[in-house]
Fold this protein.
Amino acid sequence: MIEDKNKQRTQLSDLGEFGLIDHLTKNFEIKQSSTVKGIGDDAAVLDFKKNKIVVTTDLLVEGVHFDLSYMPLKHLGYKAVVVNLSDVYAMNANATQITVSIGVSNRFPLEALEDLYAGIMTASKVYNIDVVGGDTTSSNTGLLISVTAIGEVEEDNEVYRNGAKPNDLLVVTGDLGGAYLGLQVLEREKEVYKVNPNNQPDLEPYSYVVERQLKPEARKDVVKLLKNLDVKPTSMIDVSDGLSSEIIHICKQSKVGCDLYENKIPLDPQVISACEEFNIDSTTVALNGGEDYELLFTISQKDFPKIKANPSLSVIGYIREPQDGIHLVTRAETKIPIQAQGWKNFNA
Ligand code: ADP
Ligand code: MG
C-alpha cells in the first residue's frame, strides 16, 4: 500500500555507514540549553544544572510492534519518538533529548530511511527536543528502532507510580480505546486489499481512530497544565497497555485498592460507533486496548476544584484501602474485579 513505485531507490551501500549517518542527521538542530554537545562526537554531553534527570528506552521491532504494510515510515518515526516522550511526561518531567538507534536490512532504500527520519524530525520539532545521538547497524531480518528519551524535572517534582493514597481521585486525560479501534480498521483494510488491490479504502469515517493508531501524541501539554494549576499528582503512569493494567500497576505499587466507574470512562463518539460496527464492548476496549498514550494519575481530593472544569481531564475512579481490591463499578452498579490483560491476551 505504501510503496510508491515511481520513487527513487538509492542503495544504502552507495553511501556507507558514515555517509548514511551524516545524511540522516545533518538537519537536526540543537534547541535545548541543556544540550552541550549533540551528534558528532563519541558521546553527547548534557548539563542539567540542579535538575533531576529521567531516562527511558523503548525498542520497536518490525512484525512485533509495527507492520509496514499500513504504517508509513514517516508515521513510524514520529510514533517511535512519541511513545518514549510519553514515558518521560508520565514522570511529570519535561523531555529534552533523545537518541535514535536503528537496525536496517538492505531491503530498505535510502529514501525509506529519509521518510523515517522526516517523522523523527517532525516529532523533535513538535515536542521541542534535541536528537543527540544514536547508532546505525545492519539487520538481517527487518527494521529495528530503539529510542532513548531524556528529560528533566525539578527536585521533588517527579511523580512515581507508587504514591496513590486512599481517598485520592483517579484521573485520566483525553479519551481511550481509539488506538485499538484504529488498528482494527487498518487490519481489516489490509485484508480487503489482499483480496482486491484496486479497492481504495474509505478511511474518512474512521479518521480519528486511525490517527490515534498511526500518529499518537504524548501529553506534554498535561505536564504543563498540572504545573499551571499547581497540582502535583500523587502517582502517575502513561496508558500504553490499556487502562486495566495501568490501574493495577498504580494500585500494586501504591498498595491501595480502587473503584473505577464504567460510566465515567471518556470515549470519543467515533470509538463508540466503531465499537458497534465491530461488535465489541467499548469498556473492554478502553480497559484492554492500549496505545492511547494518555496520562493516568491520582490527585488528592483537595486538588479537585483545580481540575474539575478542565475538558481534557476526567475523574474516573476513587482510590480505596488495599483490602477493598480493584474493581470496575459497572453502569448497573455491580462490582467486577479488574484483571490485567493488556495487548496479548486481548488478541488471543
Ligand atoms: P561510534 O562508532 O562511536 O558508535 P558512530 O559513527 O556510530 O560512532 O556515530 C557517530 C555519531 O553519529 C555519534 O554522535 C552518534 O551518536 C551519531 N549517530 C549514529 N547513528 C545515528 C542515528 N541512527 N541517529 C542519530 N544519530 C546517530
Ligand atoms: Mg556507533
Notes: Confidence is low (pLDDT under 50) at residues 342-348. Residues 169-337 form a domain with the Phosphoribosyl-aminoimidazole Synthetase; Chain A, domain 2 fold (CATH 3.90.650.10).
